[in-house]
Design a protein that fits this description.
The protein has about 100 residues and is of the alpha+beta class. Helices cover about 20% and strands about 40% of the residues. Strands 1, 2, 3, 4, 5 and 6 form a six-stranded antiparallel beta sheet that branches. The chain is flat. The relative contact order is 0.20.
Length: about 100
């Protein structure tokens, strides 16, 4: 496989992933961004924890999530648990942003 073929394959995979995201985003309430992944979910819990040496870390749990990862064969995940020392961003999606205008 040439470098050009690999680039074309990755571009096609990213386009497929974007199309899937566009199709499923309306099913979810929250966007969760961690250092490594981007998730859509309806149930998210963020806990701030402290290690024995005083460092702060975050524990994020989600149920019935969709994960943005083009290398995963299945992007719907029943349960997710992320533990990270990096920032976590949780946003509530505005449903009106994804509704199609009604035809009059």
């Amino acid at each position: 496989m040439s470098a050009e073929d690999l680039e074309k394959y990755e571009t096609e995979m990213e386009l497929q992933l974007y199309r899937e995201y566009r199709d499923v985003v309306g099913l979810f309430t929250y966007v969760v961004e961690t250092e490594r992944r981007f998730y859509l979910t309806n149930s998210v819990d963020l806990q701030v924890r402290s290690s024995d040496n005083g460092e702060v870390f975050f524990e994020v749990t989600m149920q019935d999530a969709w994960v943005w990862d083009m290398y995963r064969p299945a992007r719907f995940v029943k349960n997710v648990r992320v533990v990270t020392f990096k920032d976590v961003n949780i946003e509530e999606l505005a449903k009106s942003d994804f509704e199609l205008p009604a035809n009059h």
